[in-house]
Amino acid sequence: MTETPDGPMIADRHVAALQPTIDALRTESARLATWGAVLADRLLADGRLLAAGNGGSAAEAQHLTAELVGRFDGDRRAFSAICLHGDTSALTAISNDFGYDDSFARQVTAHARPGDVLVLLSTSGTSANLVRAAEAGRAAKATVWAMTGPGPNPLADAADDALTLPGVGANVQEAQLVAIHAMCRVFDAIVRDRIGATR
Q: Is residue 3 part of a domain?
């Protein structure tokens, strides 16, 4: 096995660079708690969550929808959560016929209803297809949340609320997964309390 002598130092620098991003995320606990509570209210009222991102952010968006349709913090009923890049036939057809900038917006127009929640993830906050999706979500009267890298940026500006974090793309993306899990933990705690109270 070939190893670079600088390997441990490179790895250590990467992990150390994450700390300022995580420190900034810790100041956003109230926002994440609010998002988790709003999401619980909406999904318990038969609303749905839509989510999208590009590249690694697409993986984070899909992680979020999986936590809601599946489970995160113990057994509970499934909730409606749709990952917009997960339907590859729709994604590629829309991109081919209308252009990639409309790849998510057209799906948002088709699926989003008043009271739904649309979560858009981007490390740069400048992806045109996500900005258009945010605009389509607001036009549909869905609540639009953005998770991005440093603000201000076009996606954060187009959303109803935004979590903007400092750092390079990789570190922002890593912190976004922590943010998703924190939001899901609040969501599950509220769902557990509400369902327990109605039994």
A: no
In a domain, 11, yes or no: no
In a domain, 10, yes or no: no
The verdict on pTM exceeding 0.85 is yes
Containing H/E element for 119? Answer: strand 117-122
Instruction: Give the range of the structural domain holding residue 58, as residue numbers without chain letter.
Output: 18-198
Residue-wise pLDDT for 63-87, tens only, equals 999 999 999 988 999 999 999 999 9
In angstroms, the CA 154 to CA 53 distance is 15
DSSP state of 102: G
The count of structural domains within the chain is 1
* Residue 4 resides in a domain: no
- Buried b / exposed e over 62-90, threshold 16 CB at 10 Å, is bbbbebbeeebeeeeeebbbbbbbeeeee
pLDDT tens sequence across 7-30: 899 999 999 999 999 999 999 999
